[in-house]
Amino acid sequence: MANSITAYDTIAAISTPPGEGGISIVRLSGDEAIQIAQRVFKGKDLAKVASHTINYGHIIDPTNQDVVDEVMVSVMRAPKTYTREDVIEINCHGGIVDTNRILQLLLSHGARMAEPGEFTKRAFLNGRIDLTQAESVMDLIRAKTDKAMQVAVDQLDGSLSHLIKHLRQDIFSVLGQEEVNIDYPEYEMDEVTGKMMLEKATEVRDHLQQLMKTANQGKILREGLATAIIGRPNVGKSSLLNYLLHEDKAIVTDVAGTTRDTLEEYVNVRGVPLKLVDTAGIHHTMDKVEKIGVERSRKALSQADLVLLVLDASAPLQSDDRELLKATKDKKRIILLNKTDLPAQIRPANLEAVVTDDTLIIPVSILKTDGLDRLEAAIAKLFFDEGIENSQSNVLVTNARQYGLLAQAKTALDDVITGLQNDVPLDLVQIDMTTAWEKMGEVVGENAPDELITQLFSQFCLGK
Amino acid sequence: MTVPEYTGEDYDVIVVGAGHAGSEAALAAARMGQKTMLITLNLEMVAFMPCNPSVGGPAKGIVVREVDALGGQMGKNIDATYIQMRMLNTGKGPAVRALRAQADKNAYHRVMKDTLENTPNLTLRQGMATDLIVEDGECRGIVTNTGARYRAKSVVLTAGTSSRGKIIIGELMYSSGPNNSIPSIELSENLEKLGFKLRRFKTGTPPRVNGNTIDYDQTQEEPGDKTPNAFSFTTKDADYLQDQMSCWMTYTNEETHKIIRANLKRAPMFSGVIKGVGPRYCPSIEDKVVRFADKPRHQIFLEPEGRDTSEYYVGDFSTSMPEEIQQKMLHTVAGLQHAKMMRPGYAIEYDVIEPWQLTHTLETKHVKNLFTAGQMNGTSGYEEAAGQGIIAGINAALRAQGKPGFRLGRDEAYIGVMIDDLVTKGTNEPYRLLTSRAEYRLVLRHDNADLRLTEKGRALGLIDDDRYAAFEAKKQAIEAEMARLHSIRIKPGKEVDDFLASKGGAPLKDGILASDFLKRPEVSYEDLAQFMPDHPAVDRRVIEQVTIQIKYAGYIAKEQQKIDRLHRLEAKKIPDHIDYNAINGIATEARQKLTKIQPETIAQAGRISGVNPADVAILSVYIEQGKIAKVG
């Protein structure tokens, strides 16, 4: 029984428009704002800091302790806040990728994606704005809240909605059966066993996990695959950049970046949108400021989904090269052995000792545009083969609302699984199972009140 | 010829109808010190069970315990008259366990009648209410068909299926209340004249057969439990019935279904004779055969109707087929080949009052001091009726005393869930409680009904001193045992580790609190007890509470969070008589629904179908600002 009123839960959203200024702000509002932020924050204990303070620290992904970004967190306790609820503002370094990742972390740790205008709505629900002001924005809420759901549902990719409906039916096959068993114990019906429920919950949970991964690809399609070209000075980074930019591939140039004093440039490689990060760094190294090379590359690395590591094949491997090879070890990367037009000092075989994984190593001569076809093909393959097509049925999760709901459904299923592993009785586990079913229903706009009961009666033969 | 009127006695509270709702209502009002009259069509049908001879089951059994915790009678009455007791869902968790009893239906009636007759302040009388005395929009009493005008401060109507009741058996149709009793016609007509919106519902009952003609060897026995259980807090384990009667299970088969299919055109459900809406969860056998055509057989339960009768209720075989066909259908069933049918099954159509015309106290919005309860409000089931009856009776008494009303929330009782569903959503079919209707079912357990509601019953004056003392003692024992388990440490050692190993659990690394030890899934309270020094004797009901509260603490806490959120929304009251037309921005459908339902809180407004979050938000703004346009 989904309650249509969601007021007072904790909501989150990115509150700065993308591409404006060097700092992005992710805002949280609600009773649990501080606790939720604390779950992904490394720094001071936010629960203990004074109200209206700014606190330095890092956002980390608690599942693997990865540092996502260096941030300043403002803690503002109710009632002296915009919404009159506890408010947290996370000032991060921008970059849509990191900002989104922070938002997604918050969504998977208890926050709900804010609906359009919801912060403002809360502000006057909590009496911060007077009626005259409220009336003037009321049409706006009307339009936004009513439509937000429908629009979100309409935007749904057909195959995503199909998949989710299918997964819901999977859940219902045990959920409904168990409800019937509970309400009609004297009937001979198939008993739902813990094992059945565990299998279903695990199966659906794994599907959701897959789906949530596609959130990145959905994002990439819209925002570009963040790609860093790195290498020590004079290996040919700028030539590669120019090649990519000048072969009629540039789709946007010189967009003032959302990262600090960097430029982002967008190119399209065989249908894959690449967002080249920190191109400023490359341009700078072209000028004469050589010393920042490696340091700069490291920073670009942290923002990249894909790394193009350029090595000078005409010179022996240097310590800077080795360091970069090590730094990119866990990244999706392609190694370019540049300058094949010159006598080779490094061959792919020479790298075997330092590159032990299956990283693609492509010998190229950027100067002679030799081997760059292979690079383009490799990028496309990496993206399409290992990316989308591997993730079942081309389904993409494309917006944060869907992601947030799926994250909640997944958390509920995790609870189901933990519960079952701890021998918790089925009807308790059922509470979490129902939550998962309802959250998934919200994604596809199917969670009418009393839906469960209607489904029960239409699918089971019951009666005294 | 009109019957001349005369002035009868004055009462504080008058209850019309002595079924399961009316009996509770009258008892509650009388026990709260109100001079009460309970008037009913036929004194031989007080607390009569026109359908299955049983009380309880999932959700319903919890309602019985809730009624009991509020000081009601149903639990005590069934404890005094059952012939079989079973705890259902024992293999499941604590939230959905349910007690169910087979009743001796004649005894059930007799004991309830005796209770009513011997309750101070209560007059039980046979008669038919035909009209209400309504002055200035307030109900001031009733008029009977014998011409009596009884004045009262408040009136409770519990007319059940008697309201313009119509029995249908095949092609036969006649005006009747349940089991061939006289129907109540004029009261319905007068309610319509007063402006109430009524609608037709349908329900049904299966045939009864003579138990001496059943071949039990062809059926499967369903005996009662050996472990004592009771509905009422006051019933002692020592009084548990040892000599119980069994039920018997059998099945329909293809032959039965063939006969049904061949005669569907004579089935009033399908021939269009029946206009009333029947319950989805309680379909007739012909309905099941049509809707679930692929099922080769359906279960049937043969339930004894009591010790002093040979009648058996053929459960799950509800039908309104012609009598002749009913006999043929019965004779196809294993064990019933030679069964003599004593009463045919029938369908009954009746009037209900659309329940959205009521508030949470079950008072009608339209006529003050008038309350309705039970099947008349669109529910089905004795327990649902009793649950509403006690609430209506309490509120009628409070009104007579000039005190504010009493209501239960969705997080407090199944009764609260039911009433909120009814008054907020209305119902399109006879409403039955199901555990799946309760969003907080983990806190609405049958085992804690007393803990949830006894104090409320006490405050209303419905719980006597002895019982309250016993309740407080139990509560304190639970608290003491909780505190004890949170203070004792279980130390690691060979005994403990051997035990844990035998259960497949990990050994203890350090000493842990007894409460944490009990949290382990493999550890029961009894297991824990053997590792605690100086373990005192603890009552099994206390053990049950302590175990549940410790083992399921995480789940309970999660549900409590949701409840806290509900409370905050419920704290946002909507003033009476808002003019929804004067609020800008609310969608038309929502405006109509809000005007019709008149929700009392923002939480309730949000539960109305057709009222969207945006409408609720806008409504909240108006309320927060205190600028509400009122009607008139």
From TrEMBL, chain A:
<comment type="subunit">
    <text>Homodimer. Heterotetramer of two MnmE and two MnmG subunits.</text>
</comment>
<dbReference type="GO" id="GO:0002098">
    <property type="term" value="P:tRNA wobble uridine modification"/>
</dbReference>
<keyword id="KW-0342">GTP-binding</keyword>
<dbReference type="GO" id="GO:0030488">
    <property type="term" value="P:tRNA methylation"/>
</dbReference>
<feature type="binding site">
    <location>
        <position position="238"/>
    </location>
    <ligand>
        <name>Mg(2+)</name>
    </ligand>
</feature>
<keyword id="KW-0819">tRNA processing</keyword>
<feature type="binding site">
    <location>
        <begin position="253"/>
        <end position="259"/>
    </location>
    <ligand>
        <name>GTP</name>
    </ligand>
</feature>
<feature type="domain" description="TrmE-type G">
    <location>
        <begin position="224"/>
        <end position="384"/>
    </location>
</feature>
<feature type="binding site">
    <location>
        <position position="259"/>
    </location>
    <ligand>
        <name>Mg(2+)</name>
    </ligand>
</feature>
<dbReference type="GO" id="GO:0003924">
    <property type="term" value="F:GTPase activity"/>
</dbReference>
<dbReference type="GO" id="GO:0042802">
    <property type="term" value="F:identical protein binding"/>
</dbReference>
<comment type="function">
    <text>Exhibits a very high intrinsic GTPase hydrolysis rate. Involved in the addition of a carboxymethylaminomethyl (cmnm) group at the wobble position (U34) of certain tRNAs, forming tRNA-cmnm(5)s(2)U34.</text>
</comment>
<dbReference type="InterPro" id="IPR018948">
    <property type="entry name" value="GTP-bd_TrmE_N"/>
</dbReference>
<feature type="binding site">
    <location>
        <position position="234"/>
    </location>
    <ligand>
        <name>K(+)</name>
    </ligand>
</feature>
<keyword id="KW-0963">Cytoplasm</keyword>
<feature type="binding site">
    <location>
        <begin position="234"/>
        <end position="239"/>
    </location>
    <ligand>
        <name>GTP</name>
    </ligand>
</feature>
<feature type="binding site">
    <location>
        <begin position="278"/>
        <end position="281"/>
    </location>
    <ligand>
        <name>GTP</name>
    </ligand>
</feature>
<feature type="binding site">
    <location>
        <position position="128"/>
    </location>
    <ligand>
        <name>(6S)-5-formyl-5,6,7,8-tetrahydrofolate</name>
    </ligand>
</feature>
<protein>
    <recommendedName>
        <fullName>tRNA modification GTPase MnmE</fullName>
        <ecNumber>3.6.-.-</ecNumber>
    </recommendedName>
</protein>
<feature type="binding site">
    <location>
        <position position="464"/>
    </location>
    <ligand>
        <name>(6S)-5-formyl-5,6,7,8-tetrahydrofolate</name>
    </ligand>
</feature>
<dbReference type="GO" id="GO:0046872">
    <property type="term" value="F:metal ion binding"/>
</dbReference>
<dbReference type="InterPro" id="IPR031168">
    <property type="entry name" value="G_TrmE"/>
</dbReference>
Automatic annotation (TrEMBL), chain B:
<dbReference type="InterPro" id="IPR002218">
    <property type="entry name" value="MnmG-rel"/>
</dbReference>
<comment type="similarity">
    <text>Belongs to the MnmG family.</text>
</comment>
<dbReference type="GO" id="GO:0005829">
    <property type="term" value="C:cytosol"/>
</dbReference>
<dbReference type="InterPro" id="IPR020595">
    <property type="entry name" value="MnmG-rel_CS"/>
</dbReference>
<dbReference type="InterPro" id="IPR044920">
    <property type="entry name" value="MnmG_C_subdom_sf"/>
</dbReference>
<feature type="domain" description="tRNA uridine 5-carboxymethylaminomethyl modification enzyme C-terminal subdomain">
    <location>
        <begin position="550"/>
        <end position="621"/>
    </location>
</feature>
<dbReference type="GO" id="GO:0030488">
    <property type="term" value="P:tRNA methylation"/>
</dbReference>
<dbReference type="GO" id="GO:0002098">
    <property type="term" value="P:tRNA wobble uridine modification"/>
</dbReference>
<dbReference type="Pfam" id="PF01134">
    <property type="entry name" value="GIDA"/>
</dbReference>
<dbReference type="GO" id="GO:0050660">
    <property type="term" value="F:flavin adenine dinucleotide binding"/>
</dbReference>
<keyword id="KW-0819">tRNA processing</keyword>
<dbReference type="InterPro" id="IPR047001">
    <property type="entry name" value="MnmG_C_subdom"/>
</dbReference>
<protein>
    <recommendedName>
        <fullName>tRNA uridine 5-carboxymethylaminomethyl modification enzyme MnmG</fullName>
    </recommendedName>
</protein>
<dbReference type="InterPro" id="IPR026904">
    <property type="entry name" value="MnmG_C"/>
</dbReference>
<dbReference type="InterPro" id="IPR049312">
    <property type="entry name" value="GIDA_C_N"/>
</dbReference>
<dbReference type="Pfam" id="PF21680">
    <property type="entry name" value="GIDA_C_1st"/>
</dbReference>
<feature type="binding site">
    <location>
        <begin position="278"/>
        <end position="292"/>
    </location>
    <ligand>
        <name>NAD(+)</name>
    </ligand>
</feature>
<comment type="function">
    <text>NAD-binding protein involved in the addition of a carboxymethylaminomethyl (cmnm) group at the wobble position (U34) of certain tRNAs, forming tRNA-cmnm(5)s(2)U34.</text>
</comment>
<keyword id="KW-0520">NAD</keyword>
<keyword id="KW-0274">FAD</keyword>
<feature type="binding site">
    <location>
        <begin position="17"/>
        <end position="22"/>
    </location>
    <ligand>
        <name>FAD</name>
    </ligand>
</feature>
<dbReference type="InterPro" id="IPR040131">
    <property type="entry name" value="MnmG_N"/>
</dbReference>
